[in-house]
Amino acid sequence: MPRAVLDENVSLQVADRLKILGYEVLAVAQHPARGMRDEAVFSLVVDEKESALLVTLDGHFANPIRFSPSKTAGILHITAGNLRGVDEADLVEQFLRTHSPRDFSGHLVFLSRAGARIR
After folding, report:
1. How many independent structural domains does the chain possess?
2. Count of alpha carbons within 13 angstroms of residue 57, beta-carbon side
3. Predicted pLDDT of residue 81
4. pLDDT, tens digit, for every residue of 1-48?
5. Alpha-helix runs per DSSP H in the chain
6. Which residue of 9, 23, 77, 107 has the fewest CB atoms within a 10 Å radius of its CB?
7. Which residues contact 89 (CB under 8 A, 6 or more apart)?
8. Where in the sequence is the domain holding 53, given as residue range(s)?
9. DSSP state letter for 99
10. Over the stretch 61-113, which tens digit does the pLDDT of each residue have?
11. Pairwise CA distance, residues 9 & 38, whole Å
């Protein structure tokens, strides 16, 4: 089962949607150490056995020098601004249903209402 980590700024509706898509989800907002630094969040994503997909609104994770996407199953950075939880979930679900994990694993993906850009 693929893993996903949701940064604490991402709606829990995204977690529900990811579970439907077959992901094992860790939501930082529900983690006992919520409020943790970005580096601690990234350490939850990077695992020796299997890296996870990171879903975030935090622009710091778009810095590939600080947070290398190649160590992850992908970083989905939602750049659409203030969205309702259902809209965040729709963006993520639409992207995951139309792209194979091979397309974004190890890459930074910018998600917006206009579409996705994979770097």
Report:
1. 1
2. 16
3. 78
4. 899 999 999 999 999 999 999 999 999 999 888 789 999 999 999 977
5. 12-20, 38-45, 85-98, 101-104
6. 9
7. 11, 13, 14, 16, 17
8. 3-118
9. S
10. 999 999 999 999 999 999 987 889 999 999 999 999 999 999 999 999 999 99
11. 12
Phi-psi region of 81 (alpha: psi -120 to 50; beta: other; left: phi over 0): left
| CA distances to 15, 73, 96, 103 from 100, in Å | 19, 11, 7, 5
4/51 Cα distance (integer angstroms): 9
Torsion-angle region of 74 (φ positive above 0: left; ψ -120 to 50: alpha; else: beta) = left
Q: CATH number, domain at 68?
A: 3.40.50
Q: Hey, what are 11's tokens?
A: 């709606």
Q: How many CA atoms lie within 13 A of 25 on its CB side?
A: 22
